[in-house]
Design brief:
By secondary structure, this protein is α/β, with parallel strands linked by helices. It contains twelve helices and five strands. Helix 2 links the parallel strand 2 (28-32) and strand 3 (59-60). The protein starts with a strand and ends with a helix.
């Protein structure tokens, strides 16, 4: 059997440190499973590994996708399997690390064999959602695919767009594709899973401290540089715009929010997201 290590948990839980420590002891390669860290943008704000960490330990799938690209759990799974196989070929040990639970679950449990969605169909779905807004887009999806529309809250934007693009491209509801047998990972792989779930108060403290460190290290400069790209080539519906803390810091840079309020809002976003991750991991992935 071939062992693949998985270190999962909420943001600021200590996953990266644990992965680095493990990798140093077992000739490991850290493979990213975070939906924001795959993008080649905002490396500090999204807490991508430092240059120093990358020098000492090999890292993969960090900052490899253009922020204009829509990237799904299925896209990541395909790329992650390729990277795992390559790591094993070189006699090293793959260590999957991240907080995007759907990515990790897709890797370990398999994924429904949904055909690739043409880029123009995906972009048309994104554009239509932006034009109609969430309630209007949800209502339109309900007319065309009532099963999937009933599963999602009207403000689950990415999921609504995904349901629309699938039925648009294939003529079949995502619900029908999901009934098909899942494409499993290689049978010889076994997953050694560690889910890090710190005490809630400790996790909140870590979230706040990490954001303070980002501010001290110049994350505002990074966000200001990114804001210029937003004005030129990155549409507001791009997934990278959901990076934790991005919107409050942009509001501060525009003069719409004072600095202290922006920091407080960014920290609150991070703590709330960490809480949702904790709940998800407790119920969905067993360490």
């Amino acid at each position: 059997m071939t062992q693949v290590y998985v270190i999962a948990g909420p943001t600021a839980s200590g996953k990266s440190s644990r992965a680095l420590d493990l990798a140093s002891r077992i000739n490991g390669v850290v493979i990213n499973a975070d939906s924001m860290q795959v993008y080649d943008a905002l490396p500090m704000l999204t807490a991508q590994p430092s240059a120093e960490d990358r020098v000492h330990i090999p890292h993969r799938l960090y900052g490899v996708i253009d922020p204009l690209t829509s990237y799904s759990a299925g896209n990541w799974r395909e790329r992650a399997i390729f990277e795992i196989k390559d790591v094993l070929t070189h006699g090293q040990t793959p260590i999957i690390t991240g907080g995007s639970g759907l990515y990790i679950k897709a890797l370990m449990e398999g994924f429904s064999p949904i055909p690739d969605i043409p880029p123009d169909v995906r972009q048309n779905a994104i554009d239509l959602q932006a034009q109609l807004g969430n309630p209007g887009f949800h209502a339109l999806l309900a007319e065309r695919d009532p099963v999937m529309a009933a599963r999602f809250h009207p403000f689950h934007t990415a999921r609504l767009v995904r349901a629309w693009e699938v039925i648009e491209a294939t003529g079949k509801s995502l619900a029908e594709w999901q009934k098909l047998p899942k494409e499993k990972p290689p049978a010889e792989w076994t997953f050694d899973v560690e889910v890090i779930l710190p005490d809630r108060d400790l996790l909140n403290t870590r979230c706040d401290a990490r954001f303070d460190a980002m501010m001290e290290n110049g994350v505002l400069d990074e966000v200001e540089h990114f804001s210029r790209r937003l004005q030129i080539d990155i549409p507001p519906q791009a997934l990278i715009n959901r990076a934790l803390g991005l919107q409050p810091l942009l509001s501060y840079l525009r003069g719409d929010m004072i600095r202290d309020d922006a920091i407080s809002q960014a920290k609150l976003e991070t703590r709330q997201y960490a809480k949702r991750q904790m709940t998800w991991f407790r119920h969905q992935i067993k360490g």
